[in-house]
Amino acid sequence: MIKEIAFTKMHGLGNDYIFVDCTKETLPNPEANAIAWSKYHVGIGSDGLILIESSEVADFRMRMFNADGSEGEMCGNGTRCIGKFVYEKGLTKKSSITLETLAGIKVIQLTIKKDDAGNEYVPKACIDMGIPVNEQLAFRSNTPEEMIDQEFTVDGQTFRGTAVSMGNPHIVIFVDDMAQVPLAEIGPKIETLPMFPNRTNVEFVQVTGKDELRMRVWERGSGITQACGTGACATAVAACLTGRASNKSIVTMDGGPVSIEWKKEEDKHLFMDGPATTVFEGTVWTVE
């Protein structure tokens, strides 16, 4: 059945998603709608679709679909945007929000400000991304073996990668010169290597200063994106594990920077702080 759906387009550092408030209505066939709506020129244009739902175990629940229709476990930039959405839409008055995801429950701490007219708004948020524990640090096989700064080969090229999970899989590859990386060519080949049975997000990273990291990403299911929140977190973890940065770092992506702190010696939780922006709102017809 075709129906008209209200949506809000939002982004975190250019990583843009279509958000639908499913606390009020049901969206049929989100996989097909994610594909159709994410297309530029003939759709809304985005990196994917995010549904905001009610939850029995948290304040809200997130379902995230990539531009190819596949469902992802977690989305850091999307999570910050959800915090902004639910507060500014009056769905909550909490400044600390819990969010159910396929990667577990995340905590969003909102930064709340007032504009010149006295209206409250949320320019950014800090997310407790949880613990990147050892059992989650590798996706090379179905066993929890670690892959830290180890060699692997793609099309005759040898890379050194660190596999990290932030609830979803990442392979972080450090390079000397980001400009020399053919991301559009090599990204999809690494994403679909047999050593990653669930496919993987791919981050290429250059150390640009003390605790400063420049990252570009090939996102699983979406391709090159302006930013990736979980990818930035995975990058910070990999840099810390390999001695390239401390537990606090700035990760700058094509869309801009986020601040990452990994409390590795305390409760082991990792925190990401960055902006969330509303682009526009509208209605769209669902696909059959």
Describe what this molecule looks like in 3D.
The chain is α+β, with helices and mostly antiparallel strands and 288 residues long. The chain folds into 2 domains: 4-129 and 275-285, Diaminopimelate Epimerase, Chain A, domain 1; 134-268, Diaminopimelate Epimerase, Chain A, domain 1. It has 4 helices and 18 strands. It has helices spanning 30-38, 76-88, 183-191, 229-241; strands at 4-12, 15-21, 48-53, 60-66, 71-72, 96-101, 104-114, 120-128, 150-154, 157-165, 169-174, 201-209, 212-219, 223-225, 248-253, 256-262, 270-275, 277-285. It has an 18-stranded mixed β-sheet that branches. A hairpin with a 2-residue loop joins β15 (248-253) and β16. It is globular and about 50 Å long. The N and C termini lie close together (6 Å). Mean pLDDT is 93; it is low at 134-144.
CATH architecture of the largest domain: Roll
> Please, how many helices?
4
β-strand number:
18
- What's the CATH C level of the largest domain? Alpha Beta
Uncertain runs are: 134-144
CATH superfamily of the largest domain: Diaminopimelate Epimerase, Chain A, domain 1
The shape, in one word, is globular
CATH level-3 fold name of the largest domain = Diaminopimelate Epimerase, Chain A, domain 1
Strand content: 35-45%
Order of helices and strands: EEHEEEHEEEEEEHEEEHEEEE
Name the structural class. Answer: alpha+beta
Could you give a short account of the major beta sheet?
Answer: 18 strands, mixed
From the alpha carbons, calculate the radius of gyration and give it in angstroms: 18 Å
Structural domain count? 2
The helicity comes to 10-25%
Mean pLDDT: 93
Q: What's the end-to-end separation, in Å?
A: 6 Å
